[in-house]
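Margin note: ligand = copper (II) ion.
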Amino acid sequence: MKTYMLACLALLLACCYVMPTLADHHEAGEMEMLQFPESYKAMAVSNGGTISGTVTFEGDVPEMKVLEITKDEAVCGLTEKHDESLVVGEGNALKNTIVYLIDISQGKALDKKTKPEIDQKGCKFTPHVQIVPVGVRLTMLNNDRVNHNVHIFSSVNKPVNKQQTKNRKKMQLAGVKKAEGPVQMKCDIHGWMSAWLAYVPHPYFAVTDEMGKFTLEDVPPGTYQLGYWHEACGTNSKEPATVTVEAGGTVTQDFTLSMKKM
Amino acid sequence: MIRRYQNTIFLTLLLALASVFSVADAQNAPEASEEGKRVYEKSCAHCHGTEGRGDGSAAENLLPRPRDFTRGLYKIRSTETGQVPTDQDLFDIITEGMPGTSMPGWDTSLSANERWEVVAYIKTFYDGFKENTAPRQIDLSGKIAYAEQSIETGKALYTELGCVECHGNVGRGDGTSAPTLTDEWGFQTWPANLAQGWTFRGGSETEDIFKRFIGGIAGSPMPAFEGDSFLHFGLTSEESKRLTELENKDEMTEAEDEESAAFYEKMDAAVDIALRITEGETLNAADRQSFNNAMKVVYEKSWHLANYVKSLSPEKRPEPAIGNNALRSQYIGGELPTLGDAAWETLKASYFPLVGQVILEPRQFNPTIDSVNVKSFYNDNEVAFLFTWDDRTHTTASEDEETGKMLEDAVAIQFPVKVPQGPTAPKPYFLWGGRLPVYLWYWKASAPEQVTELTAKGISNAEVQAVQSDLQAEGTYTDGQYNLWVKRALKTDDKKDLQLEPEVFVPIAFSAWDGANGDVEAKRVISSWYTFVLEPVPSSRRFIYPPLVALLSVGALFGLRGFARRRNS
Ligand code: HEC
Ligand code: HEC
Ligand SMILES: [Cu+2]
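Resulting structure:
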C-alpha cells in the first residue's frame, strides 16, 4: 500500500493542477424555471373562460439532428431518431411548449385521477414533454424488449434513478410532494433518450401539439399572466403576457419564439 | 456525599442522552458549531467551497468535481434511494476518503471529534437533513454467506437486472453504455470496474456492494435497484416460478387465467405499498407485514448478487511487482507458449500499478487504466511476455473533437538500452529516458500484430528504430481486457536493443493509453521503474535437492524422536 501512496504522491507533488473544463453545467438557470403560485385553492368553476392560442417559431429552422444510436440497434435503430429539443411543424408551428398561468391562486381542482404516462418505445420517450400533477404517480411504459433506466434530475423533489428492466412493461413512480419544473428525464443506458417533466400544483398547464396549439379551459374570470417554457427557446418569465378572461369567453394569445441565446 | 450526588446526576444525564439518541436513531453528530465551521474552512472549503457548493478554488481542475453539498446528493449511503445519508455514513466517508478521486481520507489529519463536528457542519448546507424523521436504512440483517451456490445465483441476476449494460459481461466496466455516461453535473463518468474492488469509492465488502446497488449512487448514472426493479416483486419464488410457467404458455385455460390474474393483483398491491412508503405514508401492520415478506425475497436475491459481484475481484489490491512478487521469467525447454496457451495459466501474474502522468503537459488527472499484469517464459533463444490490462473501451484510432489528434489505445514497454551494472548504478529517467536512453516496445490497438521498437531520450524525444528486430506480437481485446503477447530473441544484432541474459536484473516500466479517456502523447498512465529477471535455468541438481532435503528432514525427525525417548527414560 505504502508503495502506491508514495508513487502517487511523488507524481502529484511534481505537478500543478491544470485541466480544462470539460463540460458546462447542464442545470437550468433561475430564469428557465416554471413559476408557481405560493398557494393554490381548489374551487368550483362554473362559468370559466378559455385561453387558447398558437405558438410559432421564428428564425431559421435548423435541420433536426439525427441521433446516433450507439447500442441495441436491433430495437433502437429500427427508425431514424431525431433530437426533439426543437420540433417545428407546418407553418412554423412549435411543438412541446408548456403554456401556463403563472399567478393563478384559485380555480378548478387538480385532477388527481389522471394517469400520465411516458412510453419508452424504440428507445425514445413519448411524449417529449409531460405534465404531472403533484401527488400523482407517473407511469413509465417499456415497450422495448431492452433495459432502460428512468433517471429524473429533480432538485426540489427527490431525484429518481430506477432501472426498468426489459421484463417490466409498466412501472409506476411515486407521486412527488412539491411543484417543480422543468425537470429532465434521461436514460443513461441509452444516452440520447431525453424528456421533460413539469410537476404542477394547479391544472392550468398545457403542452402545444404538432400544430403549435394549446388550450386552457375553465379559467375563472380575471386577469392573469400567461407564461411559456420551451426547451430550446426558453421562457418569457421576465415579461409574461397578460390576458383577461371573461366569464364564458375565449381569449386568444399567440406566441412567437426564437432560439434562446447561448 | 456530594460525590454520590454527582454520580446520580451523571447517570440521569446519560439516560436522558441515551433516550434522545434512540429516538434520533443513527443520527449522532453534534449540533453544528463554530468548531465544525472552523474545521471545514480550514480543510474542506478549498475544494467544496465556503458555501458548500463544490466550487472551491481547487475544484475547477478536479474530476469528479468536489461535491456540491447544497443538493444533498451523496454517493455512499447505508440508506435507501432518495434518502439522505446517516451521520455515520458521512463520518465514515470523511474518515476513509474516496479511492479514485481527490477526496482524501481524514483519519490521521483530523481527530474523530473534529470529523464529527464537520459532519454536523456540512449538513447545514442542505435543508433535507432538517426533516425530523431518520432516513430509512437498508436492512442488512439477512446476509447470505459467500458461497459457490450463492455466487452462481447472483450471476443470473447480474444479467437479469441489467448491470451488464454498464458494467459489461464480466464486470470490467466495459458495458455498451459505458462510453456515453455523464454524471449529475454533466461530466463524463465511467462505471466501476467490478474486477478491481480496491477502486470502489465506498468499499468492496459484500455489505458495501449490497448497499450500493439497492440505494443507488446518487449523482451518478448508476440506478437504484429496489423492490420492484426485481422480476415479479411481491411474489414468493414458487409463485414467481409458476407465473413464468403460465406466461410461457401459448394458451391458458380459464382457471389458469384467473390464477395469473391473482398473481398480477398481488404484485400490484406490493408495488402500491412500496410507492406509499416512498410517498411518506406510514403503513398499517398488515401492509407492513406483506411489504416485509415481499422485500425478503428481494433481499435474498440481492445478497446473491452482492456475492457474485464480490467474486469478480481479488480480495485485495495485488501487491506490486517487487520483492517476492517481481516479474520472474520462467525457463522452459522447447517452444515458448503462444497467446491462449494453457501454459500461461500456470504462472502467477506480476502486478504493475499505473498512475496518471501529471508531471508534463498534457497531464492525465483521471486515469482509467489501473495496472498491467505480466507473465513471462523464456527458453535458450527467446523470451515471451503476456501483458494484460483492463480498458473499458476498444478504441482504434478516433479523432479527438477538441484537438483533432488521433486517440487510440496503446501500450509501451520500457527497458534501458543498457542494463545498469549493479543496484546503485543510474537508470534512465523513468519517463521515457533522458541523458540515458530507453528502449521501447510500442503497440497500438489498430495494428494488433505489430510491435515497433523505439529509442527515446525523453517523452517527446522518441524515435522509431531504423533497424526493427524480429518481434512477434499478437493482441486481443475481449470483455474490457487487452491481452498482448510479445516474443523476441534474447540477443539481437542491434546495438540500440536491450540484450537479455539469465539472472540479470533488468529495469522495466510501462506507459498505457486509453483513447476513449483522451489519452494521447504525454497524457497517459505510467509506472515507475520495476525490475524483472530471467530466472536461472533449472539445473538437473534441482531435481535431486527436494527428495534429498525430504530424506534429511525425515532423518532428523527420527533422530529427534530417539533423543526425546532417551531423555524420558
Ligand atoms: C482535494 C479536494 C478535496 C478536499 C480537500 C475535500 N474533499 Fe470531499 N470530496 C472531494 C471530491 C472530488 C468529492 C467527490 C468524489 C466523487 O464524487 O466520487 C468529494 C466528496 C465528498 C463527500 C461526499 C461523499 C459521498 O458519499 O458522496 C463528502 C461528505 C466530503 N467530500 C466531505 C469532505 C470534508 C468534510 C472535507 C474536509 C475535511 C473534504 N471533503 C475535503 C474532494 C475534496
Ligand atoms: C446506467 C449504468 C449502470 C448500471 C445499469 C449499473 N451501474 Fe453500477 N455503476 C455505474 C457507475 C457510473 C458507477 C460509478 C459511480 C461513481 O462512483 O460515480 C457504478 C459503480 C458501481 C459500483 C462501485 C461502487 C463504489 O463504491 O464505487 C458497484 C459495486 C456497482 N456499480 C454495482 C452495480 C450492480 C450490481 C448493478 C446491477 C444491479 C449496477 N451496478 C448497474 C453505472 C451503472
Ligand atoms: Cu433506455
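Confidence is low (pLDDT under 50) at residues 1-26, 541-569 of chain B.
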